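Researcher: Re-running this chain for the archive, since the previous output was lost when a drive failed. Same request as before.
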Amino acid sequence: MGGDGAGAGPGAGVRPAGPGDADELLRLRVAVLDGGPLDEQWRTTFRDDLRERLGRDPDLLAHVVPADGGGLAACAIGIVHRGYRGPSHPTGRWGRIHAVVTDPAHRRRGHARAVTAALVEALGARGCGSVELRATEAGAPLYRTLGFGPVDGYMRLNLGPGH
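Model: Regenerated structure tokens:
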């Protein structure tokens, strides 16, 4: 599903992200936060966590497309979650895609599809029986073409600091 880096077609150059990509992953991640935690402490914590874990922690995965001239054109960041085994999670593992971002200057070139497909493949290789994400209205058509479907009934509780 992922690109092998050959050629100049959509997704050419897709590769796993490493610690050296942390600053660019932060830049792209901040670009899609709509009023989220943008203070300097959040940014530093996010960047430092990526630097420490990418390439070392098998449960934090990211795939990127480098931009011509430096930086990143696109990224997809995901996590392997571990729980108990059951009918919907036969391996006890599932993946969650936290962000898929394409820099505005590089959109409409197939990069989002390429990094998402590569991330899904990597999550499957880590034993994930399913992959979930929260789709924006703009991103939902792409994810449907990759086989994602809606799941109703999710709710969330934010416990906040100290819990």
